[in-house]
Description:
The structure holds two protein chains of two kinds.
Chain A: E1 10-20, E2 29-40, E3 45-50, H1 56-63, E4 71-76, E5 79-80, H2 86-95, E6 97-101, H3 112-122, H4 127-140, H5 156-168, E7 174-178, H6 186-201, E8 205-209, H7 213-216, E9 221-226, E10 229-235
Parallel strand pairs in A: 3-8, 3-9, 6-7, 7-8
Antiparallel strand pairs in A: 1-2, 1-4, 4-5, 9-10
Chain B: H1 3-15, H2 18-56, E1 60-65, H3 85-94, E2 98-113, E3 116-125, H4 128-132, E4 137-140, H5 145-150, E5 154-157, H6 159-166, E6 176-179, E7 182-190, E8 205-209, H7 210-217, E9 226-232, H8 237-252, E10 267-271, H9 272-315, H10 317-325, H11 330-367, H12 375-401, H13 405-410
Helix pairs in contact in B: 1-11, 2-9, 2-11, 2-12, 9-11, 9-12, 11-12
The structure holds adenosine-5'-diphosphate and magnesium ion.
Adenosine-5'-diphosphate (ADP) binds next to strand 2 and helix 1 of chain A.
Amino acid sequence: MSTSEPNGLLVLEDVSRTYRVPGGDPTVQVHALRNVSLRIDAGEFVAIMGASGSGKSTLMNVLGCLDRPSGGRYWIDGTDVSSLNKAALAAVRNQTLGFVFQSFHLLARTSAVENVELPLIYGGVPARERRARATEALRRVGLGDRLDHHPNQMSGGQQQRVAIARAIVSNPRVILADEPTGNLDTTTSLGVMALLQELGRTGITVVLVTHEPDIAEYAGRVLIMRDGMVRSDLRQTQKLAEAPAPE
Amino acid sequence: MTLFLTLRIAARALLLNKTRSFLTMLGIIIGVGSVIAMAAIGAGAREQVRASFATMGANLLIITGGSSSRSGGRGGWGSQATVTWDDFKTIQTDVPSVRLAAPLLRSNGTLVADEQNWTTSVQGTTPDYFDLRSWALSSGTRFDAAEAAGGAKVVVLGQTVVGKLWGEGADPVGRSVRISNIPFEVIGVLAKLGQSPYGTDYDDCAMMPVTTFMAKIQGGSNALNGWVIVGASSSDGTGVAQRQLTSLLRDRHHLDADPTDPRPDDFQIRNLTEMASAEAEGTSTITNLLAAIAGVSMMVGGIGIMNIMLVSVSERTREIGLRLAVGATPANILWQFLVEALLLASVGGFVGIGLGVGAASRLAHAYGWPLLIDPDVVVGVVCFSAVVGVIFGLYPARHASQLDPIEALRSE
Ligand SMILES: Nc1ncnc2c1ncn2[C@@H]1O[C@H](COP(=O)(O)OP(=O)(O)O)[C@@H](O)[C@H]1O
Ligand SMILES: [Mg+2]
């Protein structure tokens, strides 16, 4: 394998991640990722599947620069991020990556538009531009009329759309979504997938974790993990998600 | 990320939890409030002491007859007339450091005017007394040297006496008043003086020439049953005057002027300037002590802030995780919580200042003190509360900034 600058947007080389069992024998280690090598190109729509405990979230955390691999190297767009410090990783998360979580993670008692502005605050975007871009992002996810609604005034699907707006507001290259439809019913899930596919068509790379095969059908590439390893890596024709009638 | 933005985020977080924020500030509010109030009360009390000693007169010494012994037990002021009229004359003429001297003989007497009567302190003195004490008259004149020497039956009254006999604000100059059944003409009224440092009402007195006092009140005796008030020629001259007077009086009383003579003085000389500063000293010691206790309560307030900040960090762990995930650096998180603590402490400080000034002005009003708020104290206290905020906010803020984003996001 090459150690020079690799091609591909996200490149993992021999990445492993081990945990000590908390309170247990210090010599016993849990291997959450075992020598994973993976290349994801710009514009791909990737679904990661696998049984619970197979290492999907750990992989997402490494890809999202929220966690550091115990071994191996990781490049984002040619930059080796395995050696970056916390502040530099924060900048990568802010500029290049966008996150969508299973449990939305919106700030309570804070309006939709202010939630979406959050990454721009840390990106140093001036107030007026912040508001304009957050409004535009909410408009893109179909919530242009809900700017001032608080999370507790919105349905799960709407909350996840706000979270997606927050993920795209800083124009990232990649959206990382760990079970984004895990807390949503089927129809709402379909809406979220349609939205992610639409974003994918604009050139954003999407990586999502799911344990539902129906959801994985909307991806162009499916990785299946077991015991911290990628066991299968298949490309497929993306099924098109029909956006359901607005909620 | 700008400081202004950090400030806004912090203020927002605090406003989301108004009651808690207020309760957290309470310790600082009370601490700052009591420091400000204590300092103001202390300054007011000192000023009060200074002002009331000032009404007693500047650079004054008071000589009283009366023996004292080393084995304790001094006679009261003027209990024995060991200072004589001749002593007084000599003090006036022979002591270079003495500017003015006046006798003050005192007795209680009843004044009768029309239907009213009033028992007051009847005092005999010379015109110099008014100068020594810088006492002014609100109407009429004081008696002159000739009247003082000639036993004129004239009297100068204090405001309280006037009020009791003729009513508040009356002008009795020219009227007649009977003292011990002898008619006197009122020739002057003293301007209002207030109280002595020991609570005596200076306005409750009737002043007459010393010769008249000896003849009519003291029944002809020329014993000096009272004080001799001496004004030193300069403010630093009181010590010199005290030494010169001591040796003069010891000499005249046939006690050896040499201080090694074991026999004690049969008189006392009190230095009002020293008494004033001793009094003021005592006041500041007490208020400094109280201010120190108030300072400690600010520290306790700081610990309260730290406590609540730690609770707040653990409650908002998920929020911190999210902020880290969307691009906050550990420094951003550190500043956010530090600024929250700083805001709590300094807003608490400002509210405390308001409270302290309010309390001080109410007390000052109630006790009739001047309201003295030292701006240095205010600035110092605000700075101190900010420092308390930073010191006690640092630990929770550091704790927040070092959280692992994944664990923070996963927490409940
Ligand atoms: N913080 C941690 N400490 C110890 N073990 C962990 C930790 N996080 C994950 N693991 C272990 O790593 C393995 C993979 O976990 P995870 O990536 O969350 O799986 P998945 O998301 O596929 O369900 C599991 O065995 C899990 O118990
Ligand atoms: Mg998982």
